[in-house]
Amino acid sequence: GATATAVAPRRFPVGFHWGAASSAYQIEGAWNEDGRGPSIWDTFARTPGRVRNGDTGDVAIDHYHRYREDVRIMADLGLTAYRFSTAWPRIQPTGSGPVNGAGLDFYERLVDELLSAGITPFLTLYHWDLPQALEDEGGWTNRETALRFGDYAAHVARRLGDRVEFWTTLNEPWCSAYLGYSSGKHAPGRVDQAAALAAVHHLNLAHGLGAQAVRSVVGDAAQLSVTLNLCAVRAASQSPEDLDALRRIDGVANRLFLDPMLRGSYPADVLADTAHLTDWSFIREGDPATINARLDALGINYYTPLTVAAPDGSGHVEAVTDHPGCGDLSFPDVDLPRTIMDWPIDATGLHELLMRVHRDYDGIPMVITENGMANDDYIGPTGEVHDPERIQYVSDHLDAAARAIADGVDLRGYFQWSLHDNFEWAYGYGKRFGIVYVDYPTQKRTLKASAHWYRDQIAQERGLA
Ligand code: PNW
């Protein structure tokens, strides 16, 4: 172009991981191939009214058959890392019992393809596709599911532990527990706040058992983490009432996961706040120690901040709420631009969140395992895809991440959500998060302007440009 842009000084450490992320159910398709069993998302998506437009992941973006082309796209973008998840129901079709070798074969092919392209695999063991047979026994409300997860993790580690270094147990247990069992917006679609709190504990326990299993199979070579969608929560004012609302939502959204995982204990104030919903008797002796497995890094997904205020005085309590026990709180509108998900955009929330975790949890190394936005991309006359809003969004969030590094945060990587447009859960294919456009009828992939921009940005930050 006509404007010469000075090469910015490198703001990210040598060895920083530059990646993009995905998850099995959102991209793979091939729902009934090679012995895959049904998951709770197959069931949910087939239940009328649950997913917009009746969309399902049956075909998705057919990554199961097109993974070679997709790895070529990653290499072309200069990604140094790729985050994906393994589908439990491909590997154990009913969630327990013998391994389905054909299911593991697929991930072995994918990992080998990545490695030969020089791309580091970041493997997530669970991104929401619970085998339906386990849900039939209570799903995450049942302690047994956590034990089964530990076995599943060991199976994957035995097959791939010789070539995968970066292991993540769970993606966003907040979503599994609260969207799955409290507000019912995600599979399995239950609305029961007490069940959601039991799910929190069993997901935490699954994390601990999974981490233990991977560690014992792979040893110290494994880099272990969990990915949390921590809530960058702000109080509407500094009044004691609003600050107490902040404490409560932070407790349920963040500390209920962070404290047992990183400190080995549940936050007493949150257990007390929710005592009218559950007596927490499902926490057994020894569980907090199991959950407190040694982690090498924490994965953080960040999209948007959340502002909270005290109950409005009307006495009204929402019957259906994402956050158990928080139906009385209010969430005032804030004056910020929004994405087409209606999520407010504010990159300073990412800086706040990184600083807070760094300060409260002993400087733990972190990786931004998801960040990005859904957009109505504009397709130009020659098929080029324009998404200037996404470029601005990513650029601002990278600036915020760089600021956190300058302020002392040990940040190890940044992953775009997502590499491709894909199945956006309850929104189906209606919301596009990709930096690569997918024309669903033909499965044709086209790099959006943001993908070209990201390629240049990575090269520049790595000193290759
Ligand atoms: C994350 N919420 O999901 C997931 O890890 C991805 O699979 C997903 O595609 C991406 O973010 C974009 O949505 C979330 O309602 C879904 O607060 C919903 C919420 C948060 C995260």
From TrEMBL:
Enzyme class (EC, first level): hydrolase
Keyword Hydrolase among UniProt keywords: yes
Gene Ontology cellular component annotations, sorted alphabetically: cytosol
Superkingdom of origin organism: Bacteria
Active site: E172, E370
SUPFAM superfamilies hit by this protein: (Trans)glycosidases (SSF51445)
Binding site for substrate: Q26, H127, N171, Y303, W417, E424, W425
Protein family (similarity comment): Belongs to the glycosyl hydrolase 1 family.
Protein name per its UniProtKB record: Beta-glucosidase
